[in-house]
Amino acid sequence: MITLMKMHNSVFDWLDRKAGFILPTLARFTFAAVLVMYFWRSAWTKLGDGPFGLFSLSDGAYAQIFPRAMEAVGYDSSQLGFFHWMVALAGTWAEFILPALIVVGLFSRLAAIGLIGFVFVQSATDIVGHGATDEKTLGGWFNGIPDSVILDQRLLWITVLAIIVVKGAGPLSADRLTGRLS
Hints:
Layout: H1 2-34, H2 36-44, H3 59-65, H4 67-72, H5 82-104, H6 108-129, H7 135-138, H8 149-167, H9 174-181
Helix pairs in contact: 1-8, 2-5, 5-6, 6-8
Subcellular location: Membrane
Main location: membrane
Membrane topology: Multi-pass membrane protein
């Protein structure tokens, strides 16, 4: 039994020492493999037409972000104000910029904090604005059903992002490279 405990401690002590490399690298890889295209595809649906589409967003952008306000104005985004435009623009840009920063590993902790906030706002919009309160979509923790879109999946997203907030981007990152250069 003592030999088994020594072997166990030896393996997991080594793993603890390597956690600074393994966890943030795995978290960024997981984010890139699972979520980066989700955010970028979502952002693409919000862009307007032409080269200035980054600044003149589609009606769909406003419908996704402000569903009740869009319904109130008959889905005519020109009736919404400057505040709506700024929030929609910032949200759209965040969906492009923050995932890119995490994948590259530049300002990773700030980008991960930003995306955690984004996921909270996205979830609140889905629940309150879009009325996603059915059990399949909203889900529930500790219910033995792990595939709800909001509570289950987004908790996993936040957990991956929280690893980056706590541990940083890891050794294979622009953060590490710029830290060594300065």
